[in-house]
Amino acid sequence: MDTQVSVLLPIIVLLPLLGGLWNGLFGSRTSRQTVYVVGSLTVLTSFVLSAMVFWHLRLAVNVNPDAAFRYELYHWIAAGSYSFDMAFLADPLSAIMLLVVTGVGFLVHLYSTAYMNDDPGYARYFAYLNLFVFSMLTLVLGKNLAMLFIGWEGVGACSYLLIGFWFKDMDKAEAGQKAFVVNRIGDIGFVVAIFLLLAFANGSVDYDSLRAHFSDSRHVLDDPNTITAICLLLFVGACGKSAQIPLYVWLPDAMAGPTPVSALIHAATMVTAGVYMIARLNFLFVLSPHAMTVVMIVGAITAVMAASIGLVQNDIKKVLAYSTVSQLGYMFIAVGAGAFAAGVFHLFTHAFFKACLFLGAGAVIHGLHHEQDIRKMGGLHAKMPVVRWTFLLSCIAIAGLPPLAGFFSKDAILAETVALKPDVERLEKYYEHGFERRAQYLAFAEKKDGEAPDEKAIAAKTKEIKEKYVASVEKLAPLRKVAFGLGLLAALMTAFYMFRLYFMTFHGQYRGDHHTWDHAHDAPWQMGLPLMILAGLAVVSGWLGMPFGGGKFNLWDKWLEPVLARSHDLVEGHLTPAVEYGLMGLSVLVAATGVGLAWSWYGKGPSTQAAGLATSLKPVHNALLGKYYIDELYDTIVIRPLRAVSQFLFHLVDRALIDLLAVRGPGYALLGVSQLGSLLQDGNVQVYLLGMVAGLAMLAWYLI
Amino acid sequence: MLHDIALLSPMIILLFGALFTLVVDPFLPTATPRRFWGPFGALISGAAVLATAALWVSGNHEMQTPAFAAHLSASRLSLFFTALTAVCALLTHLSSPAFMDEQDHGFGEFYALLHFAAFGMAVMVAAESLITLFIGLEIMSLSVYVLAAFKRTSLASVEAGLKYFIMGSVASAMLLYGMAFLYGIAGGTTYVEIQRALVVPKPGLDLWLGLAVVLTMGAFLFKVAAVPFHMWAPDAYEGAPTPVAGFMSAGVKAAAFGALLKVLYAALAGGAIDSLHLSMPKMLATFAVVTMTVGNIAALRQTNAKRILGFSAIAHAGYLLLGCVAWVPDGGLGDHYHVAGAAVPFYLVGYALASLAVFAALSVVGKGGQELTGQAQLAGLGRRYPLAGAVLTLGLLSLAGVPPTLGFFGKLELLHEVLRAGDQYVPHAVLLVLNSVVAAYYYLRITVWVYMKPEGKVEREYIRDRSLTWSMSLAALAILCVGILPSRLMRMAAFAGGAVRPQVARAHLDHQLEVAGLKPPVVKAAATEAVLPR
After folding, report:
1. pLDDT for A1
2. Which of A13, A145, B289, B445 has a beta carbon 3.0–4.6 Å from A137's, enabling a disulfide?
3. Dist CA B142 CA A673 (whole Å)
C-alpha cells in the first residue's frame, strides 16, 4: 500500500512540469482554452493526488505515528562519500505544504484564466506559473537539502520571471532583477550552510540521516558554536527567500508582477519557504538557542517595521506586500521561539487569507482598469459584493479577531513565545562530549611544554565551559518578552492598516473618476470562486488548532508531532489556562483597538483627524512613507561602491589583463600558426603521399 | 555452423539489404523516385541493430564466442561496434534521400553502397584474423570511395573520391605488406596465433616485427586520419556529399577504431612488442597529441563548415588515439598486457552521434544541387530553420564537450582513463585539455555564423524533409538523453572494452601450457566485471 502511494509523489511533482513544458513549447501555437486547461488541469490533478497522499498518510499515521511515504526516483550524484538522491518524502509537514501549494496553486490558476485573459503573453504566463508549482513541489517534497535547494532556486527563477513578466516596462524588469539579486545574497549563506552540513554530518544532507545524526550526542560537533553558525547561515538563506531584515527589500518591489502571482508566490507559498526550511530542520535549530533567538528577534523587528510602513502606504498591493513581510516576521518569531507547529500553522492560515486578500485586490484592480491607489477608491462595496465580503472576512482573519483563522494561529504564536524555553539540562547533556573535547583542546593549548594536562584540570575546564554556556543560554530568556511585546505591537498595527485598507477601498465615497466607476464590475466566476473558497478557508482553517481544553482539540499540533518530536525534547514549557485565556483576551483587545481606530479615522473615507495626525507627526509620517529610506541606504553603502569596484576591475583586470593578454594574445598566435599550416594542405595528392611516407619513416625511426 | 550463422546475423542482414537493393533496383522504372530506399535502408540497419542487441543480451559475457574457425567473433567488443556502425548507417540512410534527390543523384546504388559499407564495417570489427580484417576493410573502403565520389557531376566530389581512393590504396598496400610480415613471424593470421607468437621477445625477428608494426599501424593511422596520414580528410569531407561526409566521419572512424582496439590489445601485445626499440604506446601517444594539435589549429582559419569538420575529425582521431594507447597494465597477466577501458567505445558513440547530427543538419542547405556550407551562406539558418540550427548547435556543443551532452562525458571518461594510465601521460592529458579549448573556438564559430551573422538579402531555401527531420531529431535526442543519463551506456562500453581480455588471457595461458608441455585445460576466463569502473 505504502509503495503504491509513494509512486504518486513523483507524479504530483512532474505533472505541473509537463504542463509547463507543454505550454512553454506549444502554448503560443495552441488556442487560449488549451493553454488554460492544460495549465490548470495539471495542477488540479496534482492537488487531487496530493489529497490522496494526505488521506493515506492520515491512515498510516494512525497505525504508526512515524509513518511517511518515501520514493527514490534515481540516484543522482555519488562523489566520494557524498551522495544525493532524487528522492521525495511526504511526512505530515510536507503533506500540509503539498496541499497548500497545489490547492492555492490551482485556485490561482483558475483565477488567472480570467485575470490574464487579455494579456498577449498568457501562454508564457501559464508556463511560468506551472514551472513555479513544479519547483515549489520539489522544494517541499524533496527528501534532502539538495532537492530543497533545487526547488529553492527554481522558485527563485520563476519568481524572477514572473515579477518581470511585463519586461518591456523597465521598472518591472528591474524589480525582477532586484528580487533575484537579493535572493542570491541569501542563497550564499544557504549554500555554505549545506556545505558545512555535508562536511560535518557524514556527507549526507538527507533529512532522515541528518535527524539521526543530530539526535545522537556522540556525533556532536566540537561545540555549540559550530551548530549556531550553521543555523545562522541557514537563516541568512531564509531571510532572503522569506523577506526578513535586512533582505526584505525585494518583496514590496515584487508587486510589479501580475497580481495572481503576488498571491501565489509572494504571499502564500514561495516566501514561506524559509519558514518551512527552519521547521523542517527543527531538530538542528533547537540545538542552538542562540541562533533561535536571533531568528525570533529578527522576525519580531521585521514584523513591527514592515507593519509600521504598511500604516501609511496608499498602493493597495504595497500595503499587502508589507503586511506579508510583517506576517512572515510573525512566523519567524514562532519558529525562533521553538513553536514550530504554531509557525507552520500561521503559514497555513496566512496562505489562505493573504492569498484571498491579494486575489481580492487583483479583482479590484481588474474591475477598476488597473487602478491601484486606494485614495482613488471608496464605496466599492456596492459594485463588488463578492470581492467586498471575501475581503472583509480575510481582513478579520488577519487582524486576529476570533473565531477566524488568524486569531488562532497568532494567539498560538504569542502564547508559546512567552511559555517556551530551551531545556538547558538536556542541551548541556547533549553537548557534554563537545564541551569535554573543547576543554581538552584548551588545556593542551595552555600547556606549552607538551606534557599531557591532568584530568582534574580538564574536568575543571569542562565545568567552566559548561557553566558559561548555561549562563549564556539563560541570558536569552528576557528577549522572549521583547519579542512578545513587539508581536503584540505588530498585531495592533496589522489590525489598523488592514481595516484602513478595507474602509478606504470599499466604504465611504468613491474618489476616482466617473468613467471608471461606471465600468467597475464584480469579479467573474473564475475569480469569484477562488475568492469564496479562500475566504471560507480563512474562516475555518484556524479551528484545526483549537487552544482550549489543554490541547485536547488541537488537531494541528498532534498532526505535526512526529516531525517535531525532537524539538519537543529540547524546548519545553506551557502556560496555565488562566494566563492563556488572559493572553487571548489581550490579543483580542489589541486587535479590536486597531480595528476601532481604523473605523473612527477611515470608516467613512479618510478623515481630517487622520490627515491632522499625519501633519502633526510629519517627520515620522515621511519616514514611514519613505519606507525608512532603506533602499536609498543600500544604494549608497552597497550598490554604488560595488559598481565602482566592478568598473575598476572591468577596465583593468578584465579588459587589459584577461582580454588582451590572456585571451586574445594566444588566440591570435594560434590563428597565425593556422595560416601557416594551411599552406601545406594545398590539395596536391603528391604532397599528401609524401606526408604519408614521412609518417612511415617517423614510425620506423621510432620503432626500429 | 548454424550457431555461427546466428552469430553473424547482423552482418547477414546488412548484406541482404545491399544485395536486395542492388537486385531490385534495376527492375524499377527509371522514373520511379528512389528515395524510399532510404527508409528501407534504415529499417534494415535497425534490424541489424536489433539482432546485435539480441546477441548482446543472449551471449555469454565472458567468452569470445568465435565463429568460422576463429576468423570472426561476436564478442561484446564486436557487437558494440557493429551496433554503433549500424546506427551510423541508419541515420545516414534517413538523412540521405532528400539530399541526394536534390543533387540529382538519388540512385539506388547509393543505398546499396551504404549497406555494403556498413557490412564491411561490421566484418572489420568482428574480424579475429588479419585476412578477415582486410576483407572487411576493403569492402568498407571501396564502398566509401565510391560514395564520396557519388556526385559525379561535381568536380569537388570526384576529386574527393579519387584522392581518397589513391591514398587509400597506398594505405591498403601498407597494411597488406605489414600483414605479410606478421604472418611470417607468427605462422598464422588469426589474432590468437599472433598473440601466442609474441608472448616472449623474438631476438632475431625484431627488425621484421618492427617493420610489420610500422606498416600495420601506418595503415590504421591513415584510416583514422591521424597526422601525417590525414591530408586526404579535409578534401574528402569537403567534397563528399554531406550525408556521406557524416557517414565517413562517424562510421568509418568507429569501425577503424574498433578494429584498431582489437589489433592493439589482442594481437600486437606481449613481450615481443615491448622489447622493440621504443615502446609502441609512447610512439602512438606522440602521434596522438600531434594529430589533435594539428587538426585543431588547422581548423581555426577555415571558412567552410564541412572543411572545419574535416579538421575536427582529425583532432578527434587524436583524442581517441590517446585513449587507445593510454593503457593500464593488466595485473593478472603481467606487464606486457593491458586493460582496455570504456573510454574509447564510449567516446566514439558520442562522437559518432554528434558528427551525424551536425552533418545531417548541414545537409539542409543542399537545395537545388548546391552545397552552401560556407561562412556567409550559413547565416540565418538558425532563424529560418530553427530545428536544423538547434541540432547543429547541439551537435557542435557535444563535439566541443560541453555538458550535458554526451560529448562532455566522453571527454571526461577519456581524460580519466588517460590519467589513470600513469604519470607519463599527464603532459598528454594537459595537451588534450588545451586542445579542447582551442577546438571550442571553431565549433562556436559555426554557431555564430548560424545565429548571429547578418543574413543578407537572399532568401535561401532549405531542404525540409520528414526522414531528414527524423535523422536530426534522433541523433540530437540521443546526444541529450544519453548525455543526461550516461551510466547505462558507460557500463556497456566497459563490457565492450573488457571483452578483449579473456582472449588475451587464453593466448597467454595456451603459451605457458605449451612451454610446460601440458595439454590446455578448459579456460576459465576472468570475469569482465573486474575492469568495470565503479
Report:
1. 47
2. A13
3. 35
Confidence of residue B523 (pLDDT cuts 50, 70, 90): very low
Q: Report whether A440 contacts A458 (CB < 8 A).
A: yes
Hey, is the C-beta of A676 within 8 angstroms of any chain B C-beta?
Answer: no
Mutation choice for A interface testing from B209, B211, B214 by most A CBs within 10 A: B214
Select from B229, B297, B301 the Cβ nearest to the Cβ of A695.
B229
Measure A682 CA to nearest chain B CA, in Å: 9
Query: What does the pLDDT look like over B87-142, one tens digit per residue?
Result: 999 999 999 999 998 888 888 999 999 999 999 999 999 998 999 999 999 999 99
CB pair distance less than 8 Å for A692 and B222: yes
Shortest CB distance from B210 goes to which of A675, A680, A703?
A703
**Radius of gyration (Cα) for chain A, nearest Å?**
29
| pLDDT, tens digit, 9 for 90 and up, residues A464-517 | 888 998 999 888 888 999 999 999 999 999 999 999 999 999 988 888 888 888
Asked if A672 is an interface residue toward chain B (Cβ–Cβ < 8 A), one would say no
Q: Name the residue ranges covered by the structural domains of chain B.
A: 2-531
The residue-averaged pLDDT of A519-541 equals 89
How confident is the model over B344-388, as pLDDT tens digits?
999 999 999 999 999 999 999 888 777 778 888 888 888 889 999
pLDDT surpassing 60 at residue B64: no
Tell me which residue in A678, A695, A704 faces B211 most closely, judged by beta carbons. A704
A703 to B229: CB separation less than 8 angstroms, yes or no: no
CB-based contact B297 A674, cutoff 8 Å: yes
Cβ-in-10-Å burial (0-12, 13-18, 19+) of A670 comes to middle
CA-based nearest distance B6→chain A, Å: 37
Task: Judge whether B116 and B381 are in contact, CB under 8 Å.
Answer: no
What DSSP string describes A616-651? HTHHHHHHHHTGGGHHHHHIIIIIHHHHHHHHHHII
Q: Which residues of A touch B301 (CB under 8 A)?
A: 671, 674-675, 678
Cβ-in-10-Å burial (0-12, 13-18, 19+) of B393 comes to: buried
What are A198-246's pLDDT values in tens digits?
Answer: 888 777 888 988 888 888 777 666 678 888 999 999 999 999 999 998 8
Q: Where are the alpha helices (DSSP H) in B127-204?
A: 130-148, 155-186, 191-197
In this structure, how many other beta carbons lie within 10 angstroms of the beta carbon of residue B240? 31
Interface test with B, best of A83, A670, A673, A674 (most B CBs within 10 A): A674
Contact B299 A674 (CB under 8 A): yes
Determine the Cα–Cα distance for residues B157 and A219; give it in Å rounded to an integer: 72
Q: 3-state DSSP call for residue A315?
A: strand
CB-based contact A674 B301, cutoff 8 Å: yes
Which residue on chain B is closest to A694 by alpha carbon? B228
Q: Min CA distance, B305 vs chain A (Å)?
A: 16
Instruction: Quote the pLDDT of residue A450.
Output: 62
Question: Do the Cβ atoms of B211 and A689 come within 8 Å?
Answer: no
What pLDDT is stored for residue A29 in this prediction? 85
Cβ atoms of A544 and A394 within 8 Å: the answer is no
| ipTM value for the complex | 0.75
Cα gap A222→A225, rounded to integer Å? 8
Q: Please answer yes or no on whether B297 and A675 come within 8 Å at the CB atom.
A: no
Spatial distance between the Cα atoms of B230 and A430, rounded to a whole number of angstroms: 71
pTM of the model: 0.71
CB contact under 8 A, B301 and A689: no
Tell how many helices (H) and how many strands (E) occur in chain A.
31, 4
How far, in Å, CA of A385 to CA of A521, rounded? 10
Please say whether the beta carbons of A20 and A155 come within 8 A: no
